[in-house]
Amino acid sequence: MVSTGLDTQDNREINADLLWSYILKDLENCMPTPSYEMAIKPLGVRSFSEGNLTLITNKAIWSKAIKEKFSGEILRALRKYSRNPEAIFTVIVDKYYTSKYIVELEKPEDYSNKVKATQTQLPLNEIQIDALKFMSSYGINVKYNFENFVVSQSNKLAYGAAKGVANEPGKLYNPLFLWGGAGLGKTHLVNAIGKHILIKHPDLKLKYITINDFTNEFTKIMYQYKGNPHLKNEFINKYRNIDVLLIDDVQFLEGRDGTQNEIFTIFDFLHRNGKQIVITSDRPPKDIPTLTDRLRSRFEWGMLAEIKPPEFETRKEILKLKAKQNEINLSQEVIDLIAKAFTQNVRELEGALNRLAGYISIEEKPVSLEAAKEILNLNTIAKKLTIEEIIKFTAEYYKLEPSELKGDSRAKEIVTARYVAIYLSRELTKASLPQIGTIFGNRKHATILYAYEKTKEQKEYDQNLRIEIQTLRQKIAREYFCT
Ligand code: ADP
Ligand code: MG
Fold it and tell me: Is the pTM of this model over 0.85?
């Protein structure tokens, strides 16, 4: 008998959560990773009583797949850990159930790696392995290159500049400052630059670092050694020795004075010596409010290139490329569906693709349009979401009246709620700025745009606001977009 530690004193009642955690561990080891990640891990557990374990999912597809494909494995583990050879399980579907793991799955990178890991890949030869180790030691993520970046109107300026810099580091644009919204390919391009340079000039010393890692490294040295000038110099010298410095996500540099000084020193030194610097940010330097002026002006010295969200055709092309790379077979109509539904962020496109890949690997058959809609929560748009509805939701959430959101009050909490409602109206409906303005008490279109932009920017650094908006979006999505 295995000792599971699951029994309570009287040996009759078993804690369902604990039991499920044992079963999960067991299944994780004996099931294919994509199936486990997709169908099993996100399950919730409701109860274990009279030998019946009740599990929850929010998707009818999973309940069916689990019964058909995995019931043998689950029963085996359940009977082992409950020590009840007759134990059974039931999966109930509750469309409002959200698992913390579902959120995790939205991060496509994690998942696609796992999917990849289970696919058979040709063994690399030693030279290739050395090359990979070599690049990784500089912080470069070798999966990103220029060849697997889809170029279009939305990013061709950034792409061209990145290629230029990769071909002639230190000569063309210095610094190159790439900016654009999350998931639009900044990290991809910056790594492609690094990879290209390392292949062409393996003698150059190159460093890819995110601003957070840079700050952490610096703060740690300063903290551990109480500002020891010797170590500080060592840190600075290390970066001064670099030929190509790639710094990702400088928007997070906001307000870190100590780090800003060091960056400035390093930056100035490298720049004066003709070393290439590439910087990325989710906004242009002028919109990083707490950037010191001298650093801002340095960032603006070279070339600023914006990456915009890809157009519909480009989104389709990206999907096709990624599907091919990951050996996922999708019909044209499913590709169209994803490209229509996810418009602002390539990472979301990949997330959608990966969720479908999980389904395909479990079902072992192509995904139909209907199944794709269900998996991606794009099923029936049951009711049409109007701006009035958004105002109602937002007012309710902030415990205000819809009329207050449309009115003129400048009270802080009312303005916040009003801005959030305007932001969501712009994000979630197809209404134009003037149309939104009319409903929000006949406000001008510029006022609406200001409220939208302001909220969009503020939520980047104001965590409370971000959570409020996320919660509201989820509430709305449940009513309007769920299955
Ligand atoms: P950012 O750094 O701007 O937040 P990333 O570079 O991490 O975005 O891109 C997110 C994902 O989208 C990556 O997997 C990247 O390969 C992919 N991606 C973004 N733009 C493109 C593109 N134009 N072509 C191919 N893949 C892209
Ligand atoms: Mg990035």
Answer: no
